[in-house]
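To assess whether ligand presence alters the predicted conformation, the chain was also submitted together with S-adenosyl-L-homocysteine. Input:
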Amino acid sequence: MSAAVNTISLSDNGGNLSWPPLQAEREALSNVLASQDEDLFAVLLDKAEECRATVLGNKVYPRGLIEFSNLCQCDCYYCGLRHSNTRLGRYRLTADEIVALAREAWEKGYQSLALQSGELKSSREVKFVSEVIKRIKDITAHDGSQGLGITLSIGELAYQQYQQLFDAGAHRYLLRIETSDPKLFNQLHPPGQSFQKRLECLQALKDIGYQVGTGVMVGLPGQTYEQLAADLLFFVERDIDMLGLGPYIPHPDTPLASGPETVIANPYKTTLKMMALARLLMPYINMVCSTALQTISADGLAMGIKAGANVVMPVMTPEENRSDYSLYAAKKYSSFEQLRHEINAAGYELVLGEWGDSPHYFRRRQL
Ligand code: SAH
């Protein structure tokens, strides 16, 4: 039963995974993901928990999440923010509002923020975000402190735009590949959005020097266990620093909601297995416990941490904007206090006072 799990070794960068991976390795991962064996599930999560305890201890790092705008040029078939969705009030916080939230986060003891939005790709918009980052750094980085660490999640941009944001002070970037299968990617996005461009963006972010995060949705219509196994190998091959995996949750006002049912038997458990396998394959990465995972199960946070997550994102988006930042239906919002309570109850520690960067990044760069 656990023989399949034992083929996944505990070492950095996939360790003794041969590269390019043998078909047998892809199949082993796919079989673990497809298995409905409860014992295998339990063994896998135990192994991930053990790996994480050995490598990272019991610390969980918060990133104060500010969803500062839901304006979006993209038209992803799965996402409620898509340009064509008119059943949504559109908003963008002002620079002053974002900076005020950042100040509040800093005063509460946060060391990092995640700034997320829909996608506007104009130089005016990038300048806006750059100015906001500089202002946040100005009010927090002094007296020997490096200030608030800034993670961005604002989509596909040009190399120079990523550089501009990095120069302004952002140092981590999340850009999910959504699926590593180009054919499935094309089924999820309109013709103007390309898999190749997404790959180029990930490479640009890495070349510039960001800590780079990516990830996929689990349980998409048309997605297979083989593709999920390939996603894990994609993360290893790309040598990523951070990972965000979440179940796909249909949004009623999107085309994909009326698409075919997923063949992934249990997207919640499959996401947990993906997380556990990712932790075993890449022990030093930072991995977030996604809001989507917490949305589809009351146990999502505790189980996600057990499966290897070491980052959470308490939401700082103003209450009146939250319902309009609807990536998917019934998105759950947890405060810092709620998260801390649950994290403590699970035997982990929510840590203030440290940036909590991805150890993988420093190993990769040999810093
Ligand atoms: N525009 C930015 C950030 C916002 S979307 C970007 O695309 O990077 C952030 C993530 O939400 C996406 O990458 C996608 O993986 C996830 N998401 C969008 N719609 C979703 C849905 N219906 N179910 C689950 N996750 C979804």
